[in-house]
UniProtKB/TrEMBL annotation, chain A:
This is Cysteine desufuration protein SufE. It comes from Intrasporangium oryzae NRRL B-24470. Residues 18-147 form the Fe-S metabolism associated domain. Belongs to the SufE family. InterPro entries: Fe-S_metab-assoc_dom (IPR003808). Pfam families: SufE. PANTHER family: SUFE-LIKE PROTEIN 2, CHLOROPLASTIC (PTHR43597:SF5), SULFUR ACCEPTOR PROTEIN CSDE (PTHR43597).
TrEMBL record, chain B:
It comes from the Bacteria. This is Sulfurtransferase. Keywords: Repeat, Transferase. It comes from Intrasporangium oryzae NRRL B-24470. Residues 34-141, 176-291 form the Rhodanese domain. It holds the Pfam family Rhodanese. It catalyses: thiosulfate + hydrogen cyanide = thiocyanate + sulfite + 2 H(+). One of its GO terms (molecular function) is thiosulfate-cyanide sulfurtransferase activity. PROSITE patterns: RHODANESE_1 (PS00380), RHODANESE_2 (PS00683), RHODANESE_3 (PS50206).
């Protein structure tokens, strides 16, 4: 018996997953730290307005995120933009956000909605950071998709 | 003697706590690291925090990855512990100083696990990572490469300081300290604020448990309160006595390690056990009594 092939990741996210999967545990942490360091700050319109962002409670440290979807005629031509805020003392949470930003920002709404829910488990990160900590990233992805769905509902 | 030294010398076991000033002097004198030096360990909630910068000479130890068994819900065994310490250049008689984030929660947790294996000289840095940084002291991203040493395989001795569910059932009626947030204690919350992933089927507390949130023992800068202030909370207000047989618990046993440290080492209680199964076991167990 063969199980169905897993839903593929979008190329941008697949590339990051590949980098992580082929790295040693120490290197995985270094990579994650780079994503944490490179997470863009909030643009002016959100800075100081965390109430306009959604709080992700599943992360060990507080993380706020919001999604903007550009106008268009269908889900296939409406790019998605992601915004995150997490404190410097929570580099793991920032790193997870950085991966999702790098891998998803600019994709169309249709592409973001097609990202499999188990995508965070395909980075081989669980053994480096422990499975319990991965739940924060799973929750971030779920909330991103939910916001895209809400913001594109007719 | 500085005010901080005076505070520490008043505790029941002052040798269990060091100041940031003392540590800075040891580092400057080259006494941290090396085969005969002090081993400095950082133990954080965030697995990446150490990598962003740490106290010079510090080596990372992670509560999930290094101290927990990867399969069973238990701590590692003696052979694995010997590996974890030996690979960090720590011998059985090495002085170990542990510090971490969040007022030393995870540092106290690591210290408690070290105590299960009977490592004799293990101390906390008062105030942990936050105080060191607040004082503008040096951080580095340079990771030490200790020369591995032979650490003996010590059997874990759980009984004196670790309680299991059956122990707690037998203990009902004697002092229990619930160190979770008030909302978790009353059963309004099935998880700690901000930590819903570690929930339970039922809310409330173990019958008879006193509610003393762990953070009451810490100052705003992450250091421990003075002996006098701690006695006012645990002895005067809660009516505990150092001769009592006490069990402390929280959700997975890390916040209660902090309270275990306070009662055992700062106030000199004779018999304190940490129930690490805590609410994620009790609140999910069938037919155990719960009080709301």
């Amino acid at each position: 018996m063969s199980s169905p092939a897993p839903t593929p990741l979008p190329p941008s996210l697949a590339e990051i997953a590949e980098d992580f999967s082929s790295a040693s545990n120490d290197l995985k942490l270094q990579l994650l730290l780079e994503f944490s360091d490179e997470l863009p700050g909030l643009p002016e319109r959100y800075a100081g307005h965390l109430d306009q962002l959604e709080r992700v409670d599943e992360c060990q440290s507080p993380l706020f995120l919001t999604v903007e979807v550009e106008d268009g005629t269908s889900l296939d031509d409406r790019p998605v933009h992601l915004f995150f805020d997490a404190p410097a003392e929570a580099p793991t949470t920032r790193g997870f956000a950085g991966i999702l930003h790098e891998g998803l920002d600019g994709l169309t709404a249709a592409e973001v909605l097609a990202v499999p829910d188990d995508a965070p488990m395909r980075f081989g990160l669980a053994e480096a950071v422990s499975p319990l900590r991965m739940r924060g990233m799973v929750a971030m992805l779920a909330r991103i998709k939910r916001q895209v769905r809400a913001k594109t509902a007719a | 003697m500085t005010a901080e030294d005076a505070k520490i010398s008043a505790y029941a076991h002052p040798e269990r706590l060091v100041t940031t000033e003392w540590l800075a002097e040891q580092i400057a004198a080259g006494r941290v690291g090396g085969p005969d030096g002090i081993a400095l360990l950082e133990s954080d909630e965030d697995v990446l925090l150490y990598t962003t910068g740490h106290i010079p000479g510090a080596i990372k130890i992670d509560w999930h990855v290094d101290l927990n068994d990867p399969v069973n819900r238990d701590y590692i065994d003696g052979a694995r512990f010997a590996e974890v310490l030996g690979s960090r250049g720590i011998s059985r008689d090495t002085t170990v100083v542990i510090y971490g984030d969040k007022s030393n929660w995870w540092a106290a947790y690591a210290l408690w696990v070290f105590s299960l294996f009977g490592h004799e000289d293990v101390r906390l840095l008062d105030g942990g990572r936050a105080k060191w940084i607040a004082e503008g002291r040096e951080l580095t991203r340079e990771v030490p490469e200790p020369t591995p040493v032979e650490y003996p395989v010590a059997e874990r001795d759980d009984a004196p300081i670790r309680a299991f569910k059956d122990d707690v059932l037998a203990h009902l009626g004697t002092p229990l300290v619930d160190v979770r947030s008030p909302g978790e204690y009353t059963g309004e919350l099935l998880h700690m604020p901000d930590y819903p992933q570690e929930g339970a089927m039922r809310g409330g507390h173990i019958p008879g448990a006193k509610s003393v949130p762990w953070a009451r023992a810490a100052n705003d800068d992450g250091s421990f309160k003075s002996r006098e202030e701690l006695e006012a909370i645990y002895l005067t207000e809660q009516g505990l006595s150092p001769q009592d047989d006490v069990v402390a618990y929280c959700r997975i046993g890390e916040r209660s390690s902090h309270t275990w440290f306070v009662l055992t080492h700062l106030l000199g209680f004779d018999s304190v056990r940490n129930y690490d199964g805590s609410w994620t076991e009790w609140g999910n167990a069938v037919r155990v009594p719960i009080e709301r």
